[in-house]
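Model it.
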Amino acid sequence: PQTKRIIMASKFNVSEMKGIMAFNGFMGSKSYVEGYQFSSADTDMFAKFTGCPDAKKAPHAYRWYVHIAAISGVRGLSSGGAAAPAAPAKADKKKDKKADKKKADKKPAKKDDDDDEDFDVFGDDDDDDEEEGETRAQMLERLKREANERLIAKAAKQRTLVAIEVKPWDTEQDLNQLWKKITTEVKQDGVKWGENCHLVDVAFGIKKICMSFTMGSDSSSDTVIEMIEALEDEVQSVELTSMNVL
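Modeled.
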């Protein structure tokens, strides 16, 4: 049975500093909002932010935000650095015009400094591939859609190895024959049975069949077990012993 998915995006109001700091504490020992890999929960949470968190005040939230931006393909994020110090006061009014001229000459350099505070999480300053005229809402919707498409593609390729134990009713049963019957008659899309099995002593001469199969993300181990248990004249019980994602 699938575990109910917990949506964390609604827990923190990151439009306020209080919410950002709470989220910063939450991400202290985590790389992703849910579990150990990127998911749509990260995309939903990312969409709640109006800008990049301050790297000094909220380092964990900042780390997570930059990481998710890199995965999602967001470019030109503000680094959240401290503002440049104000220019010193003029000591001599007679030098106002000269100072103004120098200030005007330095404007292009200041623009360059501001540009340095923006960074490309991919190390690439070429933004030509971004869609022209795309609003923030459209960008977030596109990123969410692309993230979901990647998750679906990954799930389609995912295979899981399932190990089960099948117990017969008595010692007179031909367990090799029972194994062949199970692997021949119990079928489901995406399920592939292992090429062999082994018998293990249980008690009083009774043995159990230890066997395995692989299945895709759309297959159900519960359904496979129910189909085996339906062979009630030959099968006493079926126990799932392990499941491992390949």
